[in-house]
Amino acid sequence: MNYLITGGSGFIGSHLVEHLLKNRHSVINIDNFDQFYDYKTKIKNTLESLGSNAEFNFTKKDEDIRKLATETKSDHYQLYYLDIRDKNGLKEIFRNHKIDVVIHLAALAGVRPSIDRPLDYEEVNIRGTQNLWELCKEFGIKKFISASSSSVYGNNEKIPFSETDNVDRPISPYAATKKCVEVLGHVYHHLYEIDMIQLRFFTVYGPRQRPDLAIHKFAKLISENQEIPFYGDGSTARDYIFIDDIIDGVSKSIKYLETNEKVYEIINLGESEVVTLNEMLSVLEKAMGKKALKKMLPMQPGDVAKTNADITKAKALIGYSPATNFKNGIKKFVEWFLGNAHP
Q1: Of 81, 174, 188, 256, which one is the catalytic site residue?
Q2: pTM score, two decimals?
Q3: Which contiguous run of DSSP H or E holds residue 27?
Q4: Residues 36 and 110 sit within 8 Å (Cβ to Cβ)
Q5: Is the pLDDT assigned to residue 171 strictly greater than 50?
Q6: What superfamily does domain 2-204+241-270+308-322 belong to in CATH?
Q7: Catalytic residue status for 205
C-alpha cells in the first residue's frame, strides 16, 4: 500500500513511517520542519525512522532538509519539504503519486502557544487540513486518518472521557481547531464519501518525544541540573500513552479503514490510567537516578486539570490494547534519552 503521511518527521510520524516501511509499504512524507522546535531533531527522527545511523553534517536549514530529501529517496520512501497550507505544492504530490490512504498528523501543536498565535493555528490546523480533503476529493482518495487530540474535552467533568461526551467548550485555540477539524471531516465524509477516522490522542510519550513536552523537557533540565517549571501543586493529571501503543492503535485504525466502507469514527487512543504531575516527576527522577530542582509556578491558561481516556470503543472496534505501563515506558524513554545527544 502507498501511504501519504503529513508530519512524518515528527515524534509520532517518524515512528509510524518506521512501522509502515518495516511492513513493506511505501511512504510519502510531507513535513515543513516548523520552527516550533529545532529542525535538527526532525532530521534525526527521519534518519532513525529509516534505520540509518549515518552522521549528518548540518549547515543551513533549507540546504540540510533538501539534502535529506535527496539522500533518503528510494522506491519506497520520499520526503517532501512542504507546508500543508501550500495547496498547489500538495497538488503536485497528489498528481505524481498513487495514494491509497492519507494519514494526517501535521499540525501546529501546543496549547499554550496557540493562545499567543491563534490565527496561525487556524491557518495550519483547519485550512491546511481542508487542502488535503479537497485534494482527496479531486483525486478520488477515499481513506483518511486524522490526528485529533484529548484537548477537545477541555475541563470535562465526566471521567473518563468518552467519544460521546459533549466537546463544545474547548479552552484553548489549539483544542478548538481540533474540534473544528472533526466537524469538518464529517462534512467531507458525508458529501464525498471519504472514509475517515479521527483519532483523539492523549498524552503520548517515549523515544523521540517532542522536546517541548513535559517528560522530555524535565529529563533535559534534570540532566543539566537546572530548575524545571512546575505548574500548580502537582495534582494535575494526564493519561500517558507510550508511543508503541499509539502506533499499534494507528495501525489497527488503518486496517479497519481499509477493510470497511462508509466509515466515520472518532476514537480515543489513551492508556485509560491517570498519572498526576507529582507521580510523573517521581517516576522520572527514579529512572534517571537524580532529583529535580523545582521552580513552582501558577497554573497556565488553557491547561486542563485532568485527562482520562475511555478506550472501550477502541478495544471493541479496532482491537486496541495498550501494553506498556507508565514505569516501563519511562524506563524506555530514559534509556533512549541518555543514549542520544540532544541539540
Answers
A1: 174
A2: 0.96
A3: strand 26-31
A4: yes
A5: yes
A6: NAD(P)-binding Rossmann-like Domain (3.40.50.720)
A7: no
